[in-house]
Backbone:
């Protein structure tokens, strides 16, 4: 079993937030949903992976490379997608791709334009002029172009319209299938997770409550529940029903 | 990727930043050009006419942003902190990245800044108003 | 072969898949040697996790109906005729029970039912 992402006893204490002994892993080729109430620490985990916060204890490995000490290597094979990614906002999409692409070992212009076309984004648009949803789509196109092993997405679908949200899920599944990539994404939209998540990691107050595959969660639910309802991931958030 | 590649990429990046160059450098470039003209004029001993000096001063002010090109580079490199931010999630070897910028900075200084200063020095020595030089404090050290 | 997941069913998703594939095999819609869609493509089609489709296939593999070929996917095993016969019998029993339930609800007596059965059976045999 190859682990594409490993959190090993990661802790970070800060006045504003806290990450407490977070340990979990994701196998290659699977999609993991990261859930938790607001403030549980989901965004913090992504930022730690991005090496924005460096003084944590423990280690994070992506495809075996340490996020803290092998940063360039990690960023070559990981795509971080979120609202607060930095680009040259005054420049066009094309120019941005031209600036960044030489640094990636596996950049592929064909894929980049294939997805830009799919999302109907013009490469001449300035990045600052993209709407939130389009900005995320651009990031996805940009990500696919460098063929990462892991897509780390922080609330990607929050800005999408319902039509595109459906497409987005299918696109993610395609990418996982075609590229053998893996995906970690946080979301409040649990119906997305019902459709594509293989594993769910739930955070609460900076701690991992559990990290389980969806079938195990379903079985556990059926054992605990007296109703014969179909298990949905949103049920994890009903107080009193779950630990 | 080795240092040479980082240098090449940095030059390429600077050369074609569409928004940065036209807006920030146009004025500076024009001013810089005129300033250099006057530096050369000074070297030929033409700086004593007061109106020439005024034009020289204006051009200098306009060129300030460019004249201290090394400082621009430094400024840009401080913006490299912001530039670093822009490359935060790119697979960049930060050490080589910074080193490439430093090398280009030094190279520019040597190739451009130094000859200009030399000509300036020559010009100052041929003018009656050396203390009016606003381009550097070092002439005082030598006078 | 179409697999449909019902959100109303009390069965788990993987159980529904297992049952539908079993039915398809019994009904000869899937023949020995036929390849099934990959766990990923099935997952995508049904909008569920690969963990679920994998579980369904592995369940069928355990029951001896499917075999997995490394690198290629899952294929239908050579028929285990006894098992199939059993399954077929069970399926028919269920269908019969459904019909009988309706008959009882309609207050039809057992003798009338048996008579009707004989008539229909005879006509089917002839035609």
Residues:
């Amino acid at each position: 079993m190859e682990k594409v992402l490993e959190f090993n006893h990661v802790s970070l204490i800060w006045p504003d937030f806290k990450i407490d002994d977070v340990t979990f892993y994701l196998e290659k080729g699977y999609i993991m949903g990261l859930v938790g109430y607001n403030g549980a620490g989901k965004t913090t985990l992504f930022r730690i992976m991005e090496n924005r916060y460096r003084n944590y204890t423990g280690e994070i490995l992506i495809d075996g490379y340490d996020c803290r000490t092998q940063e360039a290597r990690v960023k070559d094979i990981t795509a971080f997608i979120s609202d607060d990614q930095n680009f040259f906002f005054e420049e066009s999409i094309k120019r941005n791709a031209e600036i960044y692409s030489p640094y990636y070992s596996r950049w592929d212009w064909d894929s980049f334009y294939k997805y830009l076309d799919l999302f109907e984004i013009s490469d001449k648009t300035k990045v600052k002029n993209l709407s939130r949803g389009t900005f995320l789509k651009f990031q996805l196109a940009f990500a696919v172009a460098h063929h990462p092993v892991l897509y780390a997405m922080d609330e990607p679908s929050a800005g999408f319209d319902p039509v595109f949200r459906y497409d987005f899920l299918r696109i993610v599944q395609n990418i996982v299938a075609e590229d053998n990539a893996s995906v970690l994404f946080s979301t409040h939209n649990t119906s997305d997770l019902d459709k594509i998540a293989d594993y769910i990691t739930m955070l609460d107050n900076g701690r991992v409550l559990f990290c389980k595959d969806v079938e195990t969660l379903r079985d556990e639910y059926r054992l605990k529940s007296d109703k014969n309802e179909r298990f949905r991931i949103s049920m994890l958030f009903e107080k009193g029903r779950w630990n | 990727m080795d240092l040479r590649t980082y240098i090449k990429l940095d030059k390429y990046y600077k050369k074609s930043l569409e928004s940065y160059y036209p807006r920030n450098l146009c004025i500076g470039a024009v001013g810089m050009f005129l300033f250099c003209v006057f530096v050369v004029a000074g070297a030929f001993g033409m700086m004593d006419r007061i109106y020439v000096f005024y034009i020289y001063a204006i051009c200098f002010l306009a060129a300030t942003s460019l004249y201290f090109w090394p400082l621009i580079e430094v400024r840009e490199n401080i913006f490299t902190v912001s530039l670093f931010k822009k490359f935060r999630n790119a697979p960049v070897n930060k050490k080589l990245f910074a080193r490439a910028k430093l090398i280009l900075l030094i190279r520019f200084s040597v190739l451009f800044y130094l000859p200009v200063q030399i000509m300036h020095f020559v010009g100052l020595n041929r003018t009656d108003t050396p203390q009016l030089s606003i381009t550097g404090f070092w002439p005082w050290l030598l006078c | 072969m179409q697999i449909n997941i019902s959100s109303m069913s009390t069965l788990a998703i993987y159980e529904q898949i297992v049952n539908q594939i079993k039915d398809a095999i019994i009904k000869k819609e899937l023949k020995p040697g036929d390849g099934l869609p990959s766990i990923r493509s099935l997952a995508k089609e049904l909008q569920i996790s690969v963990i679920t489709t994998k579980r369904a296939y592995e369940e069928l593999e355990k029951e001896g109906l499917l075999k997995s070929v490394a690198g290629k996917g899952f294929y239908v095993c050579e028929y285990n005729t006894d098992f199939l016969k059993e399954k077929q019998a069970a399926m028919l029993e269920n269908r019969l029970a459904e019909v009988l339930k309706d008959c009882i609800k309609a207050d039809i007596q057992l003798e009338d039912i048996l008579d009707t059965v004989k008539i229909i059976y005879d006509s089917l045999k002839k035609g």
